[in-house]
Specification:
Layout (H helix, E strand, L loop, with lengths): L8 E6 L4 H12 L5 E4 L12 H6 L7 E6 L2 E6 L1 H11 L10 H15 L3 H4 L1 H10 L4 H23 L11 H15 L8 H11 L2 H6 L10
Parallel strand pairs: 1-2
Antiparallel strand pairs: 1-3, 3-4
Helix pairs in contact: 1-3, 1-8, 4-7, 4-8, 6-7, 8-9
The structure holds glutathione.
Length: 223
């Protein structure tokens, strides 16, 4: 029986190299939380995100989803930044937002530049549409939009970064940057023009929580 004081049970639906799932893993790992994990393969069998069973979990057909069993109630959440916000409220240790209203707004701004300004254009479903329906070059599409977005993020980071993206503590901005740079490297995007992003990414890579959250450390990681 669940009691109100029992430790909440966290269950993540995601994909090893999904950037949005990875953001949530970073927040979970930073906070020292453990989670159960159900991998959702975005390509096998036409994509497990489109199955009937997963449609009931997330009608947007996207990962991540976090289920939280807490105090006898189950909460099911989609949208990585909403999940990170929830985790910050429920588990305030190692906050993912900095002290200070201005710094908090900048961390959110950087997160949203990636979450709404870059990632939707690189999504699997978009790449498939560009390649299969528009008969266009999906890799060129991704390279164009991701480079353009990172250029803007770099210019903002020059004004906000300390050791990490906003000051000297890890924030939600870092949780968005690290998976995005992994994606950019995978698509052979030249990062030479983004030295601040590369430096922040390297600082995060040195932290154990980021190692635990890394795509390669997940049970569904492929070689
Ligand atoms: N804004 C959403 C984006 C979620 C999203 O786009 N997830 C991708 C993986 S990173 C996905 O599930 N894509 C499925 C598809 O493209 O079919 C979030 O932050 O959770």
């Amino acid at each position: 029986m669940t009691t109100p004081n029992a430790r909440p049970h966290l269950h993540l639906y995601g994909t090893w190299r999904s950037s949005a799932t990875w953001r949530v893993r970073i927040a979970l790992a930073q906070k020292g939380l453990d989670w159960a994990y159900t991998p959702i393969h975005l390509k096998n069998g036409g994509g497990q995100q489109f199955t009937e069973a997963y449609d009931r979990i997330n009608p947007m057909h996207q990962v991540p989803v976090l289920e939280v069993e807490d105090g006898g109630e189950t909460l099911r959440l989609a949208q990585s930044l909403v999940i990170v916000d929830y985790l910050d409220e429920r588990f305030p240790q190692k906050p993912m937002l900095p002290q200070g209203r201005g710094a908090r707004a900048k961390a959110r701004q950087i997160a949203e530049m990636i979450n709404s300004g870059i990632q939707p254009l690189q999504n699997t479903i978009v790449q498939n549409y560009v390649r299969d329906t528009l008969k266009a070059d999906d890799a060129a599409w991704v390279q164009h939009w991701v480079s353009r977005g990172l250029e803007a993020v770099e210019r903002v980071l020059v004004t906000t970064a300390g050791t990490y993206a906003v000051g000297d503590d890890v924030t939600v901005a870092d949780a968005c940057i690290v998976p995005e740079l992994y994606f950019a490297r995978r698509f052979n995007i030249d990062l030479a023009a983004f030295p601040t992003l590369v430096r922040v990414d390297a600082a995060c890579a040195a932290l154990p929580a980021f190692e635990k959250a890394h795509a390669r450390a997940q049970l569904d990681a492929e070689p």
